[in-house]
Amino acid sequence: MLEKWNAALEYIEDNLDGAIDPATLARITLSSEYHFRRVFSALAGMSFSQYVRNRRMTLATADILDGAGVLEVAVKYGYSSGDAFSRAFRQMNGMTPSQARRPGAVLRSQQTVSFHLTIGGQHTMRYRIADLPEFSIVGRKTRIPLKYQGENLAMTEFHRNLPSGTGEQLRMLADVRELPEILFVSAGFEAEREDGSLFDYYLAVAASHDHDDWDNLRVPASKWVVFEASSQGNLTDALQQLWADAFSEWFPSNPYQVVPGPELLTITEKSEDWSSGKGELWIPVERR
Questions:
Q1: pTM score, two decimals?
Q2: Which long-range contacts (CB under 8 A, 24 or more apart) does 148-157 make?
């Protein structure tokens, strides 16, 4: 499957001075646009739109150094005006186009990305496919910034401020036997899902119907891939790595694609200080 993702990169490179159609990229990679964006960000380490912006600016910088006018380059690479281009140029290079032409100017470049299969053999990903009926996520919700690595302080603060006994009250509402009682739910992501972008976070349970006085999110019947993680060191780090491994390793190698919907994290076993334990990540999918 990686050859298809590299073909998508070639398409991007061939169209940097024109329109890049996400639907075409989805067809090349035999996926949906949503799935393409999610997996691209995991493989490339940046969002699809950020990569395209950086590549276009890299080529535009070369044109500027060759003596092309700002407005000419702006039009070529799809900027609405010379001023908009100059602002984007400064954001990437830390200087104006005219300053970039001066001797000794140090500029920044976005190298082309290519995807390669690395065979390590240290571990295999444990997963299963599950079908869930329609259900409701019922709990307490907040909207916080996404953080891919390290402690999410906004999430920690949210948990700290929950009223005492919230977990026990929620457990009384859980009646979907296929899922563990307490769920840590991520939903409502911004389109590019960049680090620092906002998403809806719930401490919740799965219930057969909505409940008044709680935040509710109805989830349609669907198929899910369930990844398992265990750690004898830092359980939080292991769970964060599970997300990265799912999108950078498992999805490009299996005939499933992610579909829009909430992602569920469950803790099935943990020590008092979270230094060890087991957890699961549930992601809604469909066959490609």
A1: 0.75
A2: 148/195, 148/240, 148/243, 148/244, 149/240, 151/236, 155/201
Length of the chain: 288
Angle between helices 48-65 and 82-93 (to 10 degrees): 100
State pLDDT tens for residues 12-71.
Answer: 999 999 999 999 999 999 989 999 998 888 778 788 999 999 999 999 999 999 999 999
Closest to 227 measured CA to CA, from 258, 192, 200, 205: 258
62: enclosing H helix or E strand: helix 48-65
How far is Cα of residue 156 from the mean position of the Cα atoms in its chain? Answer: 20
Token reading at 64: 């500027």
Taking 3-state DSSP, the helix, strand and coil percentages for the chain, each rounded to the nearest 5, stand at 35, 25, 40
Paired tokens of 119:
């065979």
Strand partners, 128: 226
DSSP characters over 34-46 = HHHHHHHHHHHSS
